[in-house]
Amino acid sequence: MAEISTQKIGTGSLSLKERQRQERLELILQATETALLEKGYHEMSLDEIAAQVGIAKATIYLHFPSKEELVISLLKRKLEDSLRDLEQVAAQPLSARARMEQILILFYKGKKKEHGQLVFALFTGTNLRKEVVEKQLSLCDHMNQVISLIGKLLDDGKSSGEINPTIPTGLLQFAFMAFIARPGMELPFEQQFQSPEEYATQVLDILFKGIGNPDQILNRN
Asked: Cα–Cα distances in Å, from 198 out to 120, 189, 203, 207, 221?
């Protein structure tokens, strides 16, 4: 499989030929992302991608041996980008709730929302999970790192007293990951929220306070 470095390389250290190769690679990946979001994995055509970039189809194969490898490389890059951003947020000296809010906002704005849409488009394609995920299990490593990072953040919240320590961390991880994954889905309730910040606040109110009516809880007591 073609390996793509996600590290930024100073163009001054590269030869003209290598800079052109890197620029062409970026254009191919950008065109692939656009095609995936518009048409999905199976309807996406390498001929169309090549035409959009302005290269011959055979040139794509100089970077990627197959359509599947191209898509896997794109997805890995997106996951690595998201993981780095999550690590930066999680490392901040803030409360668990404040960091969780920043993570939600991160995934509901700009490029990170597009990342969610891309992943959703990939994994809702016919047999795509079998074709891509099962054959390239390394993709699961990235998701496991994200889940582990969220778990540590939740444990911080338990230690600080913000989160109920009796609730299993695994259950909390599942709930929070569901809200992170949702940006890839177009759901009708989106219009109820004015901004990603408002959405993040409402999600955290559910997670930290529950959905029970406080008045009814008081009446029972």
From this structure: 23, 13, 9, 14, 31
pLDDT values of the chain reduced to their tens digit, one per residue, 221 residues: 444 443 444 445 678 888 888 899 999 999 998 888 788 788 889 999 999 999 999 999 999 988 888 888 888 787 788 888 889 999 999 999 999 999 888 877 755 556 555 665 555 554 555 555 555 556 667 778 888 999 999 999 999 999 999 999 999 988 888 887 654 455 444 556 667 788 788 888 888 887 676 665 455 55
**The token pair that represents 74 in the structure block:** 């794109």
Give the contacts of 70 (CB within 8 A, at least 6 positions apart). Answer: 2, 28, 32, 46, 60, 63, 64
Fold of 68-220: Tetracycline Repressor; domain 2 (1.10.357)
pTM above 0.70, yes or no: no
